[in-house]
Amino acid sequence: MPVYKAPLRDMKFLLNEVFDYPNHYTRLKTGANATPDIVDAILNECGKFCEEVLSPLYQSGDEEGCKLENGEVTTPEGYRKAYQQYALGGWQGLSAPEEYGGQGLPASMGLLKQEMMGTANWPFSMYPGLSMGAMNTIFLHGTENQKQTYLVPLTEGRWGGTMCLTEPQCGTDLGQVKTKAEPQEDGSYKLSGTKIFISSGDHDLTENIVHIVLARLPEAPKGTRGISLFIVPKFLPDGNGGIGQSNGVTCGSLEKKMGIKASATCVMNFDDATGFLIGPENEGLNCMFTFMNTARIGTAIQGVGPAELSYQWALDYAKERRSMRALSGKKEPDQAADSLIHHADVRRMLLTQKAIAEGGRAMLYYAARLADHMVEGHTTGDDKKADAYDDKLGFLTPILKGFLTELGNEAANLGVQVFGGHGYIREHGMEQIVRDTRIATLYEGTTGIQALDLLGRKVLLMTQGGAVREFTLKVANFARKTLTNKRVRPFSVELLKLTAQWNVLTVRLMLAARKDRDVVSSAANDFLMYSGYVTMAYMWARMAAVASDRLDKGGADSEDFYRAKLATAEFYYERLLPRAQAHATSMLSPSKNLMQLNAEHMAFTD
């Protein structure tokens, strides 16, 4: 059975040497306890939990799946015990405020934990992951009474959480939400409606589940301006931190899915369920974006996770499996054939996985620093700081979610290819990674939706290209500073060209969109992928610069480790980054070649 090994060396390289998290934490009010020794201990213990407890349940959970009987959902064998260990270990409250039972560590610590959990066993990690989104929403928008009632048991892991947006008639277009919320004399509301695709909608891991639900009040404006947000628990709180009577919330069915079968994806029915308004009336979508942005960053981990896991397993297989002789001559003459690792095409696939996993991890950790500042702005009441970092993070969020999940899907498929026919067989686990990863490009907004959010909303509408100018200025400043480094200069020169091109492309699309609105939609996917490749190039250049410096001056890791970083950076720039130019060409193609064909002529079946 394949096993997962936490990539602690790479994680610590990014944290301590590339992004200087120790110094970063000293500038945060929540960072006082995040000393290097504490962070190191947390990473090691979380890695052990993921390797020894979560990873062994990955394949068995897929085989068994979740079951719905008599209106109750049960998770696969071993999940409940593993979750109890998770909760007792205090992992759910790692980054939660101390006043509500958490450990008060920076938000980024939660992301580091989630990355390891998500790589070892993504379906399991979704249960506590959804709870984190509910916790963040209640913390930012709830009343003090709501925080005391719900945050404490959520932080302790005794209760779970969900987000309930999608309905049968609408997915991304939330303006079509029909779930109703009727005001009651006691200040509560009665909610009625059906939600679909609800991850963790029902399960047996916690004693209660807190649903964050979008619904409409009577006489609310039409469209997205008339949506409010509600807390709807499975069991009503008893006022003493426990649970009382059952609420009108039931699981109607479990979705039969391609993957993540150990994660309960439910159809949830709300039948006069008692709910409580959170945030202002008719501003639920704005409040929900707190949840959605959290979820989208979390979903980006499902791009890095499968790339890492598939790479680990494919690398081990390529070292052991023998087939033919290397074209450059025998590498293992005492064996019947050479190992797969000696074939250049297999190296291409493995290095692609490695570049995606390590480059994607760097993108996540870069964004996590921004998230720390944004969260601190919210918690300290510094709205100016919160808004500034929210804007910075908002620009990167669709790139992280859309680009990394697309590349994670590619990396997972490459893992199957390395295994050949054995990759298609269940016992090796590779096909499960593909099935589990496919959903990542869909939920929390498809890649197309992320692309429209990036180009249409963040770049063109909200900032008129300012978001690109601000980010590329940072990249260009880094590139100019590293031009004197012989090992890094080729990367720096390429980055300077790309930052200029990115701005030119943005302006050209802005001008084209004034004449043809379809340009935004027709160019969006290519613009997102181009943005992703350039952003990852920036990360690889930063890693290469540090590796070069450590080779000259010495570092925390071995010379081989740093040389491997430089070699992988070179591979990325020469083999993967050229893809950006294809996207640049495609995004400037007129929308006519997409829109001119009559819909009735898309197929001729008569």
UniProtKB/TrEMBL annotation:
The UniProt record lists the keyword Phosphoprotein: no
Segments forming domain Acyl-CoA oxidase/dehydrogenase middle: 163-272
Keyword terms of this UniProt record: FAD, Flavoprotein, Oxidoreductase
Residues covered by the Acetyl-CoA dehydrogenase-like C-terminal domain: 480-597
Top-level taxon of the source organism: Bacteria
Signal peptide: none
Annotated ranges, domain Acyl-CoA dehydrogenase/oxidase N-terminal: 41-157
Family: Belongs to the acyl-CoA dehydrogenase family.
Protein name (database record): Acyl-CoA dehydrogenase C-terminal domain-containing protein
Natural source organism: Marinobacter iranensis
